[in-house]
Give the backbone structure.
Amino acid sequence: MKPKPNALERLIDEACIAIGEVGLAGLTIGIVAERAGVSTALVHYHFDTKARLLVASATRIAERRAGRRTEALASGTGLAALDALWSAVASGVEDGLERAWLELVMWARADDDVAAALSAPRAAARDAMVQRLPSLVRELGATPHANSEEVAASLDAVLDGLALALLGRQEPGVVRTAYDAFWLTLIAAAPTRRR
């Protein structure tokens, strides 16, 4: 049986879920307290301001998102890794993680503390992509030809764009086709390996 999370962890988790469901504009201390089944006084005890709760939530959301994407890329070889990465994005849209992430990225433009909370997990996920991309491209039958850092930055932007399209209620099959087209273009531009 899984141990019950302590109040602090539960508050952060509920704030993360709320951001994914109602967005930052709808996030209040009262909503978090109600969702966690505690008083607003307990929320204020752990987080003296909404801003501190937001930073803790931003850190958790960024770490979860980075972890999902990193695990997906490491979960298999070739097409299995691509499918796992797609699944990580699609499940993040379904459970609100991607919406929460995109809202926080926009919020971070005006909030240095949120920007700092997103920074380390974002960099860790990007580093994992940079490390994984050369072998992944080889597994797909091509020779890496571009700077892995540039490809990782492009992949990160494409994944965010695909998540945004899914959040905008675009047909999932069409969005998946765009994801596949990105990879096909990347592979087609690379020299093929001789077998």
Notes: The longest helix spans residues 112-139. The mean pLDDT is 92. DSSP finds nine helices and no strands in the chain.
